[in-house]
């Protein structure tokens, strides 16, 4: 507490005089405590900063189950404006958006492998020659 309780026990007058508190030391201590609490919370909940989405990136909007295109960044941190396929412009947080992987235009020439490293060969009798 900030004051001494009034008792019948004799006390020196010097201890009854109010003392000024060092504001800088208190602020540093509170800042350190907040930082420690924040770090501990993030470790327990596996929280991490998500990478920023660039303008022009195609994304999947989770709450609408639709695809859209990032048009600009908002003045709020971690928020972007997304244009849906229908033309509607939405402001969404980074956690509500999933960047879609880039589309591959050509068939991959790299053979598919299993986890053990064996190359998977497609069955020739099932491949149709058109």
From TrEMBL:
Region (Disordered) location: 20-52
Top-level lineage group: Eukaryota
Compositionally biased intervals (Basic and acidic residues): 21-33
Protein name according to UniProt: Uncharacterized protein
Protein species of origin: Capitella teleta (Polychaete worm)
